[in-house]
Amino acid sequence: MWSSTLPAQTQGDKRQRISDIIREYSQQGNHRTGSDIDLLSAHWMRDRLAAMGIAASLEPFSVDKIEVETARFIAPGFETEGEPLYDCHYSGAAGVTGVLSEIDSGLAADIGVVMLPSADSSPQHILLDAARRTGNYKAILVVNAQSYPPEGVAVLNAQDFLEPFGPPVLQIAHARWTDIQTLIATQQPVTLIASARRVQTTAFNVNASVAGHDPALPPVVVMTPRSGWWQCASERGGGIAAFVEIAHALSLNKPRCSVLFTANSGHELGHLGLNHFMRNNPAPANDAAVWIDLGANFAAKGSVIRLQFSDYELEELTELILGSQRLAPGLKTPIGNRPSGAVQKVFEAGGHFVSLLGSNPLLHHPNDVWPEAVDIEKTTRWAEAFTGLVLELSNS
Fold first, then answer.
1. Which helix (H) or strand (E) holds 123?
2. Topology of domain 65-199, CATH
3. pLDDT (tens digit per residue) in 107-140
4. Is pTM, for the whole model, over 0.85?
5. Helices (H), ranges, the chain
6. Each residue of 4-20: pLDDT tens digit?
7. Quick one: 11-64+201-393 is in which CATH superfamily?
């Protein structure tokens, strides 16, 4: 195994660098694609890399930003604010008025209701998708699962952002769930307003590279999403911190092969930024030695770590490095199965990859902030292990 020539560093040095990155990222605000915060964050990340002597560029792509006009559920005795789904059709200012029924009840109603988590593989999500496609409802109310805090809306990703479909969908917190159940039972009329419009804007990937001693060798690509709902400190912050930590290590040790870096916006909107990067840079998709995907949630408190591999050779090398750090994943996606997250795009292109991600009890929720949501000790250890993996791969 390749031996690093990095200057001696204490664990505290690494922990502080990683803490600083996640803290600064979280404090920036809501990282929605195409927002002012998204632009600020792109410049911040580019400047962070430049401070290490790594030239980074901002790769623009066009995107429609959803500007929410009104997102509100109005019922007898109470009103509550929410967030529309970002890949549905919208209601207009008047909204939709009618009675409620749960979408799995089989009862006719104007507005369907479902309670579900933000993780996108639950049976409730299948029900929601079916309800959106059948045309049986004039609107749909999505209530966050009771595992979330009672206030604050955990927002679903918009996988069909470029081809929105179905009726207006409003997402709300579960604080009034008991009242909603009463409304369903009594068939009292309510009004759901999910009014929004699309405004064209520009978002940016942050791309960089570290040239290797042998430019003829296939590159290693390090990627992470950098946009998301709310502050997303533990969802996205861990990947961004590990991304910068790997760049820091390579700035001190020129690798044998080149290493390309891409931090993508548009993640929550069907991976728009990564799609743009792969269209504009087709060679790395198939020709890269390996893609390192620094995915979601491995920094979260209570996270169950999942690893995903394209092949057994990469699995063996990764586990060797993890063993030296006394780390092991809680779960592994079986090799050959479709992986989760942004690395699906690499899988579809036939690329080689190692992907790090986890679970998160605050996924897509506004309470995912620094420091409360982040397990910094665990994050530091996994970032250190994946830094070692990239150093090994880029020097083998």
1. helix 123-134
2. Glucose Oxidase; domain 1 (3.50.30)
3. 878 999 999 976 666 778 889 999 999 989 999 9
4. yes
5. 11-28, 36-50, 123-134, 177-186, 233-252, 272-280, 282-287, 312-324, 344-348, 376-393
6. 334 445 566 999 999 99
7. Zn peptidases (3.40.630.10)
